[in-house]
Amino acid sequence: MNKRYYSINNWLVDIPSGSILHLTTGERKRLGEYQLKLLETLIQGAGKIFTREELTQLVWEHRVIGNNSLPNAIHALRAALEDDGKKQKIIKTIPRKGYLLEPDYCSFIEKEESEVRDPEEETLPPEPVALFDEFPGDGGARESEAEPQPVEIPAVAPPAVKKSLHWTTLLLLVLATLVGGIAAGWYMQQNHDERLAAREIQPNVYSNIHLYSLEATGVSTLEANNVYDKLKDTFYTINQQIKMQSVRMNVYFHITHSSLNYTFSLTGQCDKKQLAMTIYHWRIVPARLNNLIIRETRRKLNEMATCKEN
């Protein structure tokens, strides 16, 4: 199935792989996270003059950055897209106003995913799940990745028990194993019996997004409201984008202790995408939580195939 890609000055923008691909030579260039995000923002508003403040907020999302971060990222994009920094045919600096991406150099093209896929990606996990974890000792947070599919571990025969091992010790080991198995079975049964009900929160607030909190009977709804309060601005931003692309989104989340189980589905006219994430220590750094949600949503949105014309 064909997918729709942005093209700028004969460079195809492959957002999922974080790179741009030359349509003639096949050369591939890697872009940094914020360079790619800046390029995506300019593409979506091609022909519009973005102020420095707008770009800083849209790309770095309330992070504290240096005065040269934006100009340096603009310079890197110009170099990658083979744009002359003096003539500025593609990315233009508008004096005392901001920056503009010239729409004459932008277009959409459809390509088979196999034609665009980066060979290096073949060795990567198919669907990384972004997590929040704590740095040991500093109380901070960082993002890490884990495979959603269990890793298959080859069976290894247990080492032979030394003959000198006392039979009493072996008996204790067997009893401990049995008790542990019974306790694990009881725990799994208790969790299996817990029924979660989907409760829609903030209905009719967003035109193209429906939010559902998965809750057990009798559980307080304060945590669900806490999640919404942290993400409501991000939901507004996502809603604006998917509305323009005629995509609808359902979000389901469930809170267990320090983790947030967050699943969303995107439904377009010709394709569907879904992603499940487990986000640990999600309360610690709200800005990183918002960055993660909007980044992963945009990634899946860009993976959606466009309809073939008859």
Automatic annotation (TrEMBL):
Q: What parts of the sequence cross the membrane?
A: 170-188
Residues annotated as domain OmpR/PhoB-type: 3-103
Q: Which taxonomic lineage is given here?
A: Bacteria, Pseudomonadati, Pseudomonadota, Gammaproteobacteria, Enterobacterales
Record's keyword terms, sorted: DNA-binding, Membrane, Transmembrane, Transmembrane helix
Protein's UniProt keywords contain Transmembrane: yes
- The protein depicted here goes by the name Transcriptional regulator
The cross-references to SMART domains, in alphabetical order and at most eight, read: Trans_reg_C
A single GO BP term for this record reads: regulation of DNA-templated transcription
GO MF entry, a single one:
DNA binding
The family database entries (InterPro entries) matched by this protein are listed as: OmpR/PhoB-type_DNA-bd, Sig_transdc_resp-reg_C-effctor, WH-like_DNA-bd_sf
Annotated organism of origin: Intestinirhabdus alba
Note the Pfam families from the entry: Trans_reg_C
Where's the DNA-binding part? 3-103
